[in-house]
Amino acid sequence: MNSTFAPPAAATYPELYALASQNPKLSFLEKAWWHTMLTGIMTLSQLVRPPMYFLCHLLTSIGIITFLAHEILYFARCIPWIIADALPTLFHRFKIQDKKAPPSAKEQWSCVKYILAIHFIVEMPMIVLFHPMMELFGLKYALPFPDLKTLAIQITIFFFVEDTYHYWLHRAFHWGPLYRAIHRVHHQYAAPFGLTAEYASPWETMLLGLGTIGPPLVLGSFTGEVHLMTVLAWVALRQFQAIDAHSGYDFPWSLRRIFPLWGGSDWHDDHHRYFRGNYSSSFKHWDILMGTVAGPRGKKMRQE
């Protein structure tokens, strides 16, 4: 165990927060993290003997909180794109496939129901099981939190490693048998919208999910310097990236206009429109290097 928590024999939630507040070096988030962890451990310690209550806490409290955060972040990030689709006259000029009608309320509700089923049946067990794996691979969850420099470097590594994994696996998914067995579900929408980011078969959800949770586990096992907070920030950013890539809209302030290596929504929209090419998740370099840029843009690049 890399945690040094030592819960008092009896304390209320406000008392734990007051105890955390006595340390002036703790930030607001660190105080909240500390007393939330202690509260969960204390509750479980009354039911399960040590040291098993630490593992029980990881499997229940943190796992459930992480899953709930995943749900809130996913659907909250989809709201701007739902609003854009509901106001086509206002946002039509930013629509990438502007000749196709926005998704109807019925289509979006059908998508929501399927995604909720995938989240609860497939993703929730993966999220809960990640935490004992975190212990096994040496990831940290005790205080202090990592500094911003460490967090930024590690998340950048995760983005590039996941992008490489995603490129080759996604490209394999377009091979006939794998496409029919696994990937066809995701291509139900030739003009994607924000909610479709995680509209995929259970096998695709699990296999691509390994590209998200795998890099922190591997780096943590080698360095012992990966914190759970870094993982949570990484998963949230990866989630936002996937939703934005499927939004169907390209605004003048989109990241790809500032950072040319970034794929963006126009890049991934071409994958859905032309079916092949643009297999990467976040960046452009693998598709450019391997000659798999989609559509007219790819044809022009090959000619040049």
Continuous helix count: 13
Strand tally is 0
Portion in strands: under 5%
Q: Tell me the number of structural domains.
A: 1
Average pLDDT, all residues: 83
Estimated radius of gyration:
22 Å
Q: Level of helix content?
A: 55-70%
Kindly name the structural category. mainly alpha
How does the overall form come out from the CA principal axes?
A: globular
Q: Any low-confidence stretches, pLDDT <50, length ≥5? A: 1-13, 40-55
N to C succession of SSEs: HHHHHHHHHHHHH
Main β-sheet description: none
End-to-end distance: 57 Å
Describe the structure.
This is Fatty acid hydroxylase domain-containing protein. One of its GO terms (biological process) is lipid biosynthetic process. InterPro entries: Fatty_acid_hydroxylase (IPR006694), Sterol_Desaturase_Related (IPR050307). The chain is mainly α and 304 residues long. The protein has one domain. The chain has 13 helices and no strands. Helix 5 runs parallel beside helix 8 (202-223).
What descriptors fit this protein?
304 residues; mainly alpha; 13 helices
Secondary structure topology:
Elements: H1 13-21, H2 28-45, H3 52-86, H4 88-91, H5 105-136, H6 148-173, H7 176-183, H8 202-223, H9 228-245, H10 255-258, H11 264-274, H12 285-290, H13 295-303
Helix pairs in contact: 1-2, 2-3, 3-5, 3-9, 5-8, 6-8, 6-9
Subcellular location: Membrane
Organism: Aspergillus vadensis (strain CBS 113365 / IMI 142717 / IBT 24658)
Transmembrane segments: 52-68, 111-131
